[in-house]
Amino acid sequence: MNLFIQAVITGVLVGGIYALVTLGLTLIFGVMDIGNAAQAAFAILAAYIVYWLSSLYHVDPFIGMILATGLLFVMGFYLYKYIVYKTSGLMAFALLYFLSIFLESTMVFVWGNTYRGIKVPYLSGSLQIYGYYIPLDRFIGFLMVSAVLAIIAYVLKYTYFGKAIRATMQNPYAAALMGINVDRIYQVTFGIGIALSGIAGVILGTIYSFYPSLQGVWIGLMFAIVVFGGMGSLSGTLIGSIIIGIISSLVATYVSSVWAPLVAYVILVLTLWIKPSGIKGRKI
Amino acid sequence: MSFTRSLIKKCLVSKNKKYVVFILTALTLSLPLLSSEIFYIDFLLVLFMYATIAVGWNIIGGYTGYVSFGHVAFFGLGAYTTAILLVRFGLSPFVTCILGGVVAIVFALLIGIPTLKLKGAYFAIATLGLGFVLQLLFLNLGSLTGGGEGLSLPLPPWDIKTSVEIFYYAMFIVFLASVLTTYWLEHSRFGLALKCIRDDELSAETSGIPTAKLKTMAFLLSAFFPAVSGGLFSYYATYIDPITVFDPKISMYAIVFSMLGGSGSVLGPVIGSIILYSVAQTARYLITAPGVDVMVFSAIAVAVIIYLPEGIVGFLKGRSGAK
Amino acid sequence: MSLLKVINCWKLFGGLKALQNVNFEADQGILGIIGPNGAGKTTLFNVITGVYKPDKGKVFLKNRDITGLSPHTIRRLGISRTFQIPRPFINETVFENVLAAGFFGRVDKVSKKELIEETEKILEFVGLIDKRDEEASSLNIHQRKLLEIARGLITKPILLLVDEIASGLTPAEVDNVVSLIKKVNEKGIGVIWIEHVMRAIMKAAERIIVLDYGKIISEGSPEKVAKDPLVIRAYLGEEIA
Predict the structure, then answer these.
(1) Domains in chain A: how many in total?
(2) Which residues of B touch A261 (CB under 8 A)?
(3) Shared-domain flag, residues C17 and C119
(4) In this complex, which chains have at least 3 CB pairs below 8 Å with chain C?
(5) pLDDT tens digits, B290-307
(6) Is residue A247 part of a domain?
């Protein structure tokens, strides 16, 4: 029983990290119906930037995270403005997929395909509650995803910009007629989506070791979460992440950790087969 | 430019195509007699392999409009089927590579049933993880597959030169079979139905085309050829492991080669393969750092999507969608 | 004899009742279906052609239950349709568009040569023979609508469902498609015709059904329907006293 509870706790915390990585993908999917296959590559890129800043210039990882996030926003904004806008649907997905391979191979070229890790000495311990271990770094990650989710929910619900995004989501043509600059909404959303993956990548880099090709592993997991939770649904992403996190953790505990990565793919295919709209999402 | 264009057009689009293809085939067949350099023969052999994967991919991705991002799964399955049958049962790869194709067809059926219901990017997403999943399975089913250590195959019983030539002809036959299959597709009712599905699936269905059945058949057919070429590859390479034969980049090559040449045409994937494989090998030769060829590929792929979405063949037919 | 019978058909989309207990019969004449936007007209076509399964109710073609069959089967049994916004196979030629339907949508044994001849005859009939070898993407809206009819006719249907063929056309083009559909009907093919352009449908239809909020609110000759206060209210809202 103790083993079970520990596995569930680990699963929930890992699910939180999954959610953090996937939020940007969900946002871009929901607002502009683009499957951003380059999302994980940008996350790894952010992790490298922070690693590089902290190991060469001794910049604190959290300061580095803010810098990397800002940089990624700018990259996302202009990427959409000058390239991605020309495509949609399948072609946009393919474009971003090839971009992810380009980023990956460039990172291999620049940094090599070896394992790196961002060291944060003050986050290396574990909390212990009623005899169960809660690793501090994962716990902080979980808090961050909650905070980011709360901020996004607030922005979407109460600000002018958020209302404009929601209007655009529902009907871009009508939104344009109402005087909303739809192109600008898309550019900013894409920027925010990419920037979110930056935050996630850094958190990821402090918890796990990373290397450029890891993006290929993560993007599969992220798409599984988005599809399972429901395209474009933020709460669906959180719930889906935690469920996939718990199942993976249980599989790792009771079967073998080598099969845990399979969980996400099986869930992806089953969701697409049985209920393509996911737990909470709109219809495909 | 316009002169070159009309010249190539004359070679490719008009009735002269037959002769051009014939001459190229004759040249290809006689190459081992003309050159004693193993390097060139090996170069073409691997080119035929990639071209076969691309031509196979083109049946579902180009003709039917279901863009698979996981075709490496079929290549790897073919490679492993042949390797296992040789290592464990001593069966000849030149026969069992066909069995590898059959295994890939069965797997494609299993995957196709849930995923071919999906449209556009969703099908792409569903197939994205295929190679990864099989890689994981083959890494961890050690007793049968040799796990991460891979499988070493017995060496072919010929000297190197003869061996390379035999594989060269074998790979060429598979390649030719795949091209002839798409040529038949281009001129058959089945192919016309696939193109209708690509253009408008609902309209195809209400026109009387049994879309679910036909697109599944297209998927199975497109899985077959990559698997057969994978089977030959495993014997030629004499060693395979899950990381090599389920490398997701092979899926990418299939897509990029087809797209650059022009997907949904007979010669598009072939032309794309010739150009890009040559470019990649040159890049690898000039710059020895890892990942350079992949970098070049992906950059070209991005450029093709933006500037030449109909590919070279589409461009020559004056059907360029570029703005 | 009635060709098509729709009995107690219901179709729900979540909470929206797109079709509520729809009952009607169609014979060999031209049956018009009118109604405000969102009244469920196209949904009705989708239920008849098998694109949607009705939640309740049955559809019979010549006394054969076709409810829930796949669209391509229903097409082969003899119901062709055209789409409101034409959906040609955009990268194929006009000829191939029609031929493809002929290859797959027919149950009678017909040789390829005969089919090619018939395809050309039909292209001549609708007036697209000049465009035979052009890609469908090069056609204008009027030609695309003609192509939809040609593609519908190649399978020798019992019944042709026509969805708003006159919308978006110039008056001269409207006259052209109206006379074409009348000619189709004279060949003995039953026609069910959804239309917003009243000038076209009132002239051509023998009988009209009016749908509103998924229900049939009126049925009868064009003259009778036009005077029905329920119909006037559905189109114009409550009468101002």
Answers:
(1) 1
(2) 132, 136
(3) no
(4) B
(5) 778 888 888 988 998 888
(6) no
| Closest CA–CA distance from residue B311 to any residue of chain A (Å) | 13
Provide mean pLDDT across the span A134-148.
81
- The domain that holds C165 is classified in CATH as 3.40.50.300
CB contact under 8 Å between B306 and A86, yes or no, is yes
* Spatial distance between the Cα atoms of C19 and B173, rounded to a whole number of angstroms: 58
Put simply, the answer to whether B129 touches A224 (Cβ < 8 Å) is yes
Q: Tell me if chain B has a CB within 8 Å of the CB of A257.
A: no
Write out the DSSP string of B56-85: HHHIIIIIS----S-THHHHHHHHHHHHHH
Residue C83: inside a domain: no
B264, closest residue in chain C (CA to CA): C91
The reply to whether A262 touches chain B by the CB within 8 Å rule is yes
Nearest CA distance, B291 vs chain A (angstrom): 5
Contact A216 B295 (CB under 8 A): no
Quote the pLDDT of residue A135: 78
My answer on whether C144 and C100 are in the same domain is: yes
Nearest CA in chain A to B301: A98
Q: What is the pLDDT, as a whole number, of residue B322?
A: 34
Q: Which member of C51, C91, C104 has the closest CB to residue B207? A: C104
Using an 8 Å CB-CB cutoff, list residues of chain C that contact chain B: 49, 51, 70-72, 75-76, 81, 83, 87-92, 96, 99-101, 103-106, 151, 155
Do C71 and C162 lie in one domain? The reply is: yes
Helix (H) or strand (E) holding C71: helix C71-77
Q: What are phi and psi of B241, to 5 degrees?
A: -140, 165
Model confidence over A89-99: pLDDT tens digits? 888 999 999 99
* C232 Cβ contact partners less than 8 Å away, ≥ 6 residues apart: C239
Distance CA A158, CA B219 (A): 48
The bridge status of strand C159-163 relative to strand C190-194 is: parallel
* C73 and C161 in a common domain: yes
Q: Do A265 and B305 touch (CB under 8 A)?
A: no
- From C103, C135, C153, give the residue that closes a domain: C153
Shortest distance, CA C114 to any CA of chain B (angstroms): 15
State the complex-level ipTM. 0.91
One domain, residues C165 and C230: yes
pLDDT single digits (tens) C14-57: 888 889 999 999 988 899 999 888 888 899 999 999 999 999 99
- Those residues with Cβ within 8 angstroms of residue A159's Cβ, 6 or more apart along the chain or in another chain: none
Contact B128 A220 (CB under 8 A): yes
**Mean pLDDT, chain A, as a whole number?**
85
Strand (E) positions, B225-277?
239-240
Say if A175 falls within a structural domain: yes
CB contact under 8 A, B115 and A261: no
**Is the model's pLDDT at B233 over the cut of 90?**
yes
DSSP letter (8 states) at residue A276: T
Same domain for C72 and C98? no
Chain B CB contacts of C93 below 8 Å: none
Main-chain phi, psi angles of C65, to 5 degrees? -70, 115
pLDDT digits (tens, 9 = 90+) for C96-133: 999 999 999 998 888 899 999 999 999 999 999 999 99
Cβ-nearest to C49 among B189, B196, B206: B206
Q: Which residue of B has its CA nearest to A228?
A: B126
**Does C178 map to a domain?**
yes
Q: What are phi and psi of C220, to 5 degrees?
A: 155, -165
Last residue of a domain, one of C153, C173, C203: C153
| Residue C164 shares a structural domain with residue C140 | no
C19 lies in a domain? yes
Residues constituting chain A: 284
Which residues, in sequence order, are bridge partners of residue B77?
Answer: none
**Is position C211 within any domain?**
yes
Whether residue A227 is contained in a domain is answered as no
Residue with tokens 């929910």: A153
Beta strands in B127-177 (DSSP E): 151-152
With respect to residue A149, please indicate whether it lies within any of the assigned structural domains.
yes
Specify the number of domains making up chain C. Answer: 2
Contacts of B206 in chain C (CB under 8 A): 49, 51, 71-72, 75, 81
Domain that holds residue C14: 4-78+157-236
